[in-house]
Amino acid sequence: SLYPHSLRNIDELCASIVRSHRETSQYRVEELPALRWKVFGREEIQAYQSKSVDEMWQHCAIRLTDAVQYVVEFAKHIPGFRMLSQNDQIALLKTGSMEVVLVRMSRFFNTENSTVFFDGKFAGTEVFKSLACSDLITAVFDFAHGMCALKLTEQQIALFSALVLINADRPCLEDRGRVQRVQRNVELGLTHILQRDNQESLMQKLYQRMAVLRSLCSLHMEKLRWFSQRYPLTAHSLFPPLYKELFA
Ligand SMILES: CNC(=O)[C@@H]1CCCN1C(=O)c1ccc(Cl)c(COc2cccc3c(C(F)(F)F)cc(C)nc23)c1Cl
Fold it and tell me: Are 79 and 150 contacting, i.e. CB atoms less than 8 angstroms apart?
């Protein structure tokens, strides 16, 4: 009958998304326990805090662009993503890639001392002072805390990341119907994984996290606009091209 057929598909769908998540994770979560307590010393923090605003923004933009490129690779292996039109693929990545970067970032967050993996060590919010956007950084840290509280497995994070990306409600999609079909399959995959883990109650919490992500990323875009108006040279010449393509 239909069911075993779709189940086999759902299992394959989950397996390919989990594999792609693992293969496109910049850092391996297994390496983290060893790194957890490598925090920046006072002099190193001073060095970050004495950077100029545009220097620190450029420093972060390079890392964020790097992270976004891994998310682009992840997206390409989500079953059905490559069947979408080029424009729809870009539209989904334009709005969703930073959200997936945030979801992935929360895996490298130490809730015990509120530090995040940055430049090879764990950094507290004070390291990002010279960005002159403490509200953004506070929001990024708060989001990471919220994600850690859910104690998601890597498989759940993989399916959740795919669902964050494949969102048929995104603006300016050419073929919303096709994106909806891909999204529904990913939703089935996430539900399947949560049922298997006996954690269906997480679904509601994950949808709430997605709403927080959307508001957080509109704050990002606002900050990005503020920064590129205030430092047009850096934003337009130094930011890596992909960054401009996706966020300009
Ligand atoms: C484990 N580390 C990581 O996951 C991140 C991504 C990969 C590398 N990386 C970091 O080094 C990192 C870790 C934590 C923080 Cl807080 C930052 C700095 O974050 C930002 C500084 C400026 C702008 C940021 C913007 C804005 F506004 F551009 F959209 C948006 C996001 C989300 N983060 C910004 C960075 Cl760049």
Answer: no
